[in-house]
Structure formats: C-alpha cells, structure tokens
Specification:
Blueprint: H1 2-28, H2 34-92, E1 109-111, E2 120-122, E3 133-134, E4 139-140, E5 146-147, E6 151-157, E7 166-177, E8 180-191
Antiparallel strand pairs: 1-2, 3-4, 3-5, 6-7, 7-8
Length: 194
C-alpha cells in the first residue's frame, strides 16, 4: 500500500510538472511574431492577387470582343443593303444594276440603312470620317443619338470582271478602343444575275 501511495504521488508530481511545462511553453508562444504575420499577409495577398488580375483581364477582353462583334454586324448590315439594292435594280430593270450606289465606286461612301430619302452619301476626297450614332436600338448617321467610335466605309469595285457583271463590295469598320485602333474588313462579291 505504501508503494502504491508512493507511485500515485510520483504520478501526480509528473502530471503537475508536465502541466507546468505546457503552461509555461504556451505563455511564451501566446501570440504571432511580426515576421509570421507579414509572411501570412504576403501569402494571402498572392492568393488573392492572381485571380483578381485574371478577372480584370477577362473583363477588358470581353469589352474588346463586344466591339469586334458590333463592327462585324455593322459591316454585314451594309453588305445586305447593297445586295438588296442590287436585287431591286435587277427586278425593276434599270440600265445599271448598281444604280444608287455610284458614290461608293469612287471615294467610298456612307450607307445609312435607316435613312429612306438619301441612304448613300459620298465620303469625299478626305475619306469617310463621320462616326456612327447609336440611338439605343440602331446605328445611323442622321437620327439623333450618342456618337460611337465606329466609322464605316463602303467601297464598290465594279471592274472585277470585263463584262461588268461582278462587283466587289469592301466594307471597313474602324474604331479606337482600349487597345488602340482596330479595323474589321469585310468583302463580298456580288453578281448581276439577270
């Protein structure tokens, strides 16, 4: 029994010493040092900065893609208009199957598909410099709207073939965006199918 008491006392002493050691160790390591805090902040900043830079780049590229898409559709709109003029002329049988598009054959022209009275206007010798306007639904030149960055030029080369039954329609849409001047060029060959 005495031996058991001695063993119990020894165990209690060991437990007390261990508890005291743990308590003293914890007291010394109670807070983070300045260096540990700076390292943690640096790691956290690096983990956040990468995805943030990637998302900012993605947003700016989405803006550029949107401008390219608008420019493509502005060019396609004019090509469809020229096809419509060609088909209307062929069906009504005027002498020139490109009648109404004469301005586009020399210096280039503006085509405003919403303007029913004078849809085709000569650019002049200085080239096309007028910017399209956007009224919330449509792009145009004459109707009031907010001026955009897009400049659309249409040129028609009716000397594509000797017999004059083919014409090249070249549409250039220019704009200046976040990354400088951009140009979308579209070309279509149309034929006198009469």
């Amino acid at each position: 029994m005495q031996n058991e008491k001695q063993q119990l006392k020894t165990k209690k002493t060991k437990i007390f010493r261990f508890s005291l050691f743990v308590f003293r160790s914890c007291r010394r390591q109670a807070g983070f040092t300045l260096i540990e805090t700076l390292v943690a902040i640096t790691i956290l900043s690096a983990a956040i900065a990468g995805p943030m830079a990637l998302s900012i780049k993605s947003i700016s590229l989405a803006s550029v893609s949107q401008d390219q898409l608008v420019a493509f559709y502005l060019g396609q709109e004019v090509i469809e208009y020229v096809r419509n003029v060609r088909d209307t002329n062929i069906l009504s049988e005027p002498s020139d199957w490109l009648e109404g598009l004469e301005f586009c054959k020399t210096n280039g022209c503006y085509i405003d598909v919403l303007n029913e009275t004078v849809p085709v206007t000569d650019c002049g010798t200085g080239g096309c410099v007028n910017k399209l306007k956007f009224d919330g639904q449509n792009y145009n030149y004459e109707i009031a709207g907010e001026e955009t960055a897009f400049i659309r030029t249409v040129k028609i080369d009716d000397n594509a073939r000797v017999d004059g039954d083919e014409a090249k329609v070249n549409v250039s849409v220019k704009w200046t965006g976040k990354y400088g001047e951009k140009i979308v060029n579209l070309q279509d060959n149309i034929f006198n199918w009469r």
